[in-house]
Every structure is written in C-alpha cells, then in structure tokens.
UniProtKB/TrEMBL annotation:
It comes from the Eukaryota. InterPro entries: Duc1 (IPR013897). It comes from Raphidocelis subcapitata. It holds the Pfam family Duc1. This is Domain of unknown function at the cortex 1 domain-containing protein.
C-alpha cells in the first residue's frame, strides 16, 4: 500500500499552512478529519514508551491532577546534563502558559516559555497581542539565552527524534517528509527499517522570529522583534534595516548562506517557534496538501513530540523537552475499557432479561 493510500479517509480539509503555518482562521481541531482512530484491541507493546523516555511518561493521575491533556517534561537521557528551573530532574512537570523556566545545558543557558492552546492558563495568550492570538496557532515557544561555545550555524538543528524503529517505514517517511518541508526546504529525514527515526532542519531557517542582541540589551522574550543584523550585518534590507522574518528564513534556507557562520556566546539570542499543524490536545496532525488529518497516536507508538535544538556535529543538545499527550499514552487503554464496559452492560442486560422470565 502506498503512503497516500494508507492515509485515505473521508473528504476533509487541513489548514493551508505555508512554511511557517501562521495563517489566521479556524483552529486545527476544527479542520482535521479523524482517521486511524485507536482500536479497542491493540498491541500493548506499541503503547509502552521507549526505555529511554519511559521514566518521564506521566501517569494517568498526573493528567487528572493537572487538569490538562498535555504535560511537558525534560528528556531522561539528559539527566545530569540538562537542568530545568535549577533541577536535574528530567521527569518533573514543567510550567505551561504562565511563566518562563530556566534551562541550562553544556551548550546553552537561558529561559524558555511554553504556550499550548487547550491547556490551563492559555486563555490569556489567545487574546489580541498574545502568543496564540492568531486563530490557527496551537503552540508557541519563546527561547532566550546565550550559547556557551561556538556552534556552526548550519549544524544548529531542530526537529523530531524517535528511538523506536518504524512499523511502516514508507508511511513514516511520507509523514516526516511532509512535516519537515513545512519548516524548511533544507532538511534531512531518516526512516529505515530497524533503526531509530528522525527529521532535522536548520533552526535559523525555521524559527519564525530571531532577535540577536548584546548582553544587557536583550528585549522581553515575548516582545522581541526580528533582527539578526548584529550577528549577520550582510543580511539586511534597504538602508541596513532588519529583514522580515520570512525573508531571513528564506535566505538561510539555502545551505550556502549558512556556510561559514557560527553562533556563539557573544550575543543573546531570542527565538520564537510556533505552528498550527498539530493540535497538541488531541495529537492530530494536518499536512498541507493532504486532505485528511493524521492521528499521531497510532503512528508514534507512545513516543512524544519534542521541543529541541542540538549541535548536529557533536550530537549535544542545546535543550530537549518532551511533549506528552494523555491520548498518546492512554487512548488504547480507554478504548479497551470502553469496550469491556459495553460487553459488561450487554451481559447485565441479558441477565436481567433471563431473570424477568422466571
């Protein structure tokens, strides 16, 4: 079966997301067609997190206590390497919507603020001027800080990494290729039978906003404006004015324009990343040109989405956070319990019928 055939379903519409997925309109959940819903009977091993991530997987009661379908944690593989709010604990629940958190690794020291539509406290961000004020935007992350050493700009990567091997390589390559192209034309997709999967793209070509400033002159992270002229004075508009974000992204989406450039500790970097392709509360994905929504629960096999940046040459992470969904971890159990409950009610009904005949 071809990848496209594997995604066939009833006619529907996904957002016409361009490279940045920034258009304003209906929210992702209004546009996605539910396909590949979790069946009542599944292979439980598929819905068990990989051993490298399992320690951070929130239990059911954690989602209930948080009143949220989404919980973000650190990455257990970075225990002792990454600190979040001063703690090395990568399994702790991280703040959403309300405040920034401190993050530090061997490569970076700064702060990150996460905002996810549909989670507690996100309502303010959806108001005019807020991080989610664009109607389609489902997710926003603001990062600000300094690198601890020089990194090749071409090797400063973002993307997604999954430790499990693909069950259907052709389908996963189709999905990952479509997702990667939304962020940058320059990308690398690795999907091979029996091997962990990933897709990467240059962070400087994919971020929706980048501001480079001198220490002590950095803007408020959420109020920053596009300006990389301090770092790249040759990348400017008329009269030396900063290029618009989209123009900067297009320029650096050509590998030759990143070649020879480095990011280092001399400046404070502020980056914004936001998108409208994924509804994190349902874990549904819409790809441009694909007429159906894709249920990520059934294809990611209990592997969470990431917010990460890394040095592609050394493999070291600038930061790495895991975005867990209750559906990702427990939709299969919910389906099985619902099926069991239905059978139980049928048995009760038949038993009552038998008794009434006595």
């Amino acid at each position: 079966m071809s990848p496209a055939a594997a995604l066939e379903g009833p006619p529907g519409s996904v957002m016409d997301a361009g490279k940045s997925g920034l258009g304003c309109g209906a929210a992702p959940s209004d546009l996605l067609v539910e396909v590949d819903a979790v069946p009542a009977a599944v292979d439980a091993a598929r819905f068990t997190p990989h051993k490298s991530q399992a320690a951070a997987a929130p239990p059911r009661e954690a989602f209930a206590a948080a009143g949220s379908p989404v919980i973000v944690t650190g990455a257990p593989a970075l225990h002792g390497i990454q600190t979040l709010n001063g703690s090395p604990d990568q399994t702790a629940q991280l703040p959403l919507n309300t405040r920034a958190m401190d993050v530090e690794t061997d490569l970076f020291k700064g702060r990150i603020q996460l905002t996810i539509r549909g989670t507690p406290g996100a309502e303010a961000a959806a108001r005019p001027g807020g991080a989610l004020s664009c109607g389609r935007r489902s997710f926003h992350v603001a990062i600000q800080g300094r690198f601890k050493r020089a990194i090749s700009a071409a090797e400063l990567l973002s993307g997604q990494e999954y430790p499990k091997a693909p069950r259907t390589p052709s389908l996963m390559h189709f999905v990952f290729s479509g997702a990667a192209r939304v962020f940058a034309a320059t990308n690398e997709v690795h999907v091979k039978e029996g091997e962990p999967m990933h897709f990467h793209y240059p962070a400087i070509a994919s971020a929706q906003l980048i501001n480079v400033s001198r220490p002590g002159e950095e803007p408020d992270p959420l109020e920053a404006e596009e300006d990389v002229t301090l770092w790249a004075p040759d990348v400017a508009g008329r009269g030396g004015a900063p290029l618009a974000s989209a123009a900067r992204a297009r320029f650096f989406d050509k590998p030759s324009n990143l070649a020879g450039r480095v990011v280092g500790p001399e400046y404070v970097w502020t980056m914004h990343i936001h998108q409208a392709l994924i509804d994190f509360t349902t874990y549904k994905l819409g790809l441009p040109g694909v007429p159906v929504g894709i249920d990520l629960v059934n294809i990611l096999d209990a592997q969470p989405l990431q917010i990460m940046a890394k040095d592609g040459k050394s493999g070291e992470y600038v930061f790495n956070l895991l975005v867990w969904s209750r559906r990702l971890l427990y939709a299969h159990a919910d389906a099985e319990e619902a099926a069991a409950g239905s059978v139980s009610e049928k048995i009760k009904g038949r038993f009552k019928g038998l008794l009434s005949g006595w």
